[in-house]
Amino acid sequence: MTGSAERENPKHPMIGVGAVVWHDGRVLLIRRGKPPRAGEWSLPGGAQELGETVQQTVQREVLEETGIRITNIEFLEIVDLIMPGGANGKPRYHYTLLDFSADANSETTIPIPGDDASEAIWADADTLGDYNLWPVTRQVIEKSRKLRGH
Known about the structure:
The protein has 3 helices and 7 strands. The protein is an alpha+beta fold. Strands 1, 2, 3, 4, 5, 6 and 7 form a 7-stranded mixed β-sheet that branches. The longest helix is centred in the last third of the chain and has 14 residues, at 135-148. GO terms for molecular function: hydrolase activity. InterPro entries: Nudix_hydrolase, NUDIX_hydrolase-like_dom_sf, NUDIX_hydrolase_CS, NUDIX_hydrolase_dom. It comes from Thalassospira marina. Belongs to the Nudix hydrolase family.
């Protein structure tokens, strides 16, 4: 895994994934335990490891952060996460995020936080305002919701 120190003040953008995971009309959210956006609610996901496909990355990250296995994985969109405040006026963090939509495997539906997640929950898609999500995350969830008919 790429360490947090390697992710701050990067020399080039890092590739990451995010997953909008559905179960019974609810969406899987995690509370981030590490930067960037530590303490904030978000989608499960993280950095791609060397030799891993993006599909393998999204499956691994969701499993590590929530204990949930996913199926019906579909690409949603690309999101740029560029956070200022780095050395010499450069970004502190710079991720190119590939977001996917997926369903929870019916055998693993109880979220258990792990790895970078301090909490993992199923949230009602109609009450996402309660979680103070990054506006781009809300847009990605809504796009997935429309495509999947939730």
